[in-house]
């Protein structure tokens, strides 16, 4: 084989290998709002309040080699539903101020751990949680179950909303906890 033929084969081999290496280095996912449930629980003196919010959009990109991540998960702040129209109206107008801050956002910047392409994984998703227009650093523990290109993920975490500057909705009779527990169940699919 001539030197030129060997060089041509080497260039073709590199061209075939490099795109595959790029795909392994960058993982991108689209999060399905229709298959996402954002549940919240907050305790009070009279009863525990359960409710939901709606995810409007979400995407996540990360580099498995470095853990660097980007993307955004957006929740419709006005979609909060606790089963009481009066309570939800107060939550929207007085607590979350949804006309002024219509979205609750999470913008990841780092993934710690490895997401397995098949089976169960545990990772930490670090980033900024934006509530009422103010960013708060947060790490979300994420349980992932991968099956044939579909990634089901669950994250449970606590938001110290009073510490973060939001009003506590307590009244003279009803005392509400200063923290709210959030659980997100979602399904993500590889981009492209």
Task: Describe this entry's structure for a reader.
- This protein has 2 helices and 9 strands, in the order H-E-E-E-E-H-E-E-E-E-E.
- It is of the alpha+beta class.
- It has a single domain (26-190), classed as Lipid/polyisoprenoid-binding, YceI-like (Lipocalin), CATH 2.40.128.
- Strands 1, 2, 3, 4, 5, 6, 7, 8 and 9 form a 9-stranded antiparallel beta sheet that branches.
Quick synopsis:
By secondary structure, this protein is α+β, with helices and mostly antiparallel strands.
Question: Characteristics of this structure?
Answer:
192 residues, alpha+beta, Lipocalin, nine-stranded antiparallel β-sheet, 2 helices
Report the end-to-end length measured between terminal Cα atoms: 40 Å
Gyration radius over CA = 22 Å
Written as H for each helix and E for each strand, in order along the chain, the element string is HEEEEHEEEEE
The CATH topology label is: Lipocalin
Mean pLDDT: 87
- Shape call: elongated
Number of domains: 1
The fraction of residues assigned to DSSP E strands is over 45%
- Level-2 CATH architecture: Beta Barrel
Give the % helix: 10-25%
Major pleated sheet: 9 strands, antiparallel
Low-confidence stretches: 1-24
Strand tally is 9
Q: Report the total helices.
A: 2
Q: Pairing-aware structural class of the strands and helices?
A: alpha+beta
CATH class: Mainly Beta
Mind telling me the CATH superfamily name?
Lipid/polyisoprenoid-binding, YceI-like
